[in-house]
Amino acid sequence: MGEMALELNGVRARYGSVEVLHEVDLSLRRGSVLAVLGSNGAGKSTLLKVTAGLHPIASGSIRLDGRNVVGWSPDRLARRGVCLIPEGRGVFPHLTVRENLWMATHLGVTRKDAEAMAFERFARLGDRPNQLAGTLSGGEQQMLALARAVITKPSVLMVDELSMGLAPRLADSLYESVRQIAADGVSVLLVEQFARTVLGMADRAAIMVSGRVVIQGTPADVEAHLSSAYLGG
Ligand SMILES: Nc1ncnc2c1ncn2[C@@H]1O[C@H](COP(=O)(O)OP(=O)(O)OP(=O)(O)O)[C@@H](O)[C@H]1O
Ligand SMILES: [Mg+2]
After folding, report:
1. What positions does the domain ABC transporter occupy (predicted)?
2. In a 10 Å sphere around its CB, with 0-12 CB exposed, 13-18 middle and 19+ buried, how is residue 131 labelled?
3. Start-to-end CA span in the chain (Å)
4. 20 C-alpha to center of ligand 1: Å?
5. What ligand has the least distance to the C-alpha of 36?
6. CB 193 near ligand 1, within 6 Å
């Protein structure tokens, strides 16, 4: 196997006749964290949807472990380990913490093991297994979303705006959990709006402006370009 878990080359995507991703190139090294920053409407969520098979690609290629997966269904991609935590958390608010975890066991993990995996990583969830997910704090809901993802043993985990609406300290602690997930061998693609602090934990980073990747490199490279990129420079 090559060192890249995921490679996008020349990816274009449209809504109707409007192209919103223009020749996007990105690579995600195995077991690493790539953070893609971009403002409102830059195309970050579309990028993740295309990669998860939830929105059609207009042209270009997406390689998973070196294999072109263009045209694969979301189910087939999920079985190959592609997992997306969508914008706004993706937990079932009217189910308990425990029931939310059970819903993620369809890929072969027992309920008992699912709970053990989740509660070992996120003790706060273990303290409240029977609480309705909708009544958890924002940070706890994100923990639950991450826990659900981990249970499916993903190879590529994509997270859409993990830090949205959370206090910076809480966001940092969730990023720390993401780092641990990556250390266990999961390749992670995070997209964020203005969360500059994500650069502190990412291995590589990129900036998207209006559907294009304008820079990709080390977090330090990207940090240096951040202000000018957002100002359109
Ligand atoms: N279902 C849709 N139909 C038409 N246009 C869409 C649709 N979804 C997104 N778009 C447009 O595509 C572009 C990219 O949107 P996208 O949601 O990918 O951006 P984003 O970077 O995730 O933004 P945000 O930070 O606000 O979540 C925007 O111009 C948006 O208006
Ligand atoms: Mg978005």
Report:
1. 6-231
2. middle
3. 39
4. 8
5. 1
6. yes
pLDDT per residue over 107-161, tens digit each?
778 999 999 999 999 999 999 999 999 999 999 999 999 999 999 999 999 999 9
- In three-state form (DSSP H/G/I as H, E/B as E, the rest C), the secondary structure along 72-141 is CCHHHHHHCCEEEECCCCCCCCCCEHHHHHHCCCCCCCCHHHHHHHHHHHCHHHHCCCCCEHHHCCHHHH
Tokens at residue 174, please? 């969730």
Rounded Cα distance between 216 and 175, Å, is 20
The closest ligand to the CA of 39 turns out to be 1
Contact 54, 75 (CB under 8 A): no
CA dihedral 159, 165, 167, 169 (to 10 degrees): 0
163 CB within 6 A, ligand 1: no
Q: 4-90+155-230: what CATH class?
A: alpha beta
Residue numbers in the chain where pLDDT is lower than 50 = 233
Pairing outcome for strands 187-192 and 204-209:
unpaired
User: For the whole model, what pTM was predicted?
Assistant: 0.94
Residue 42 near ligand 1, beta carbon < 6 Å: yes
Cα 211 to middle of ligand 1, angstroms: 10
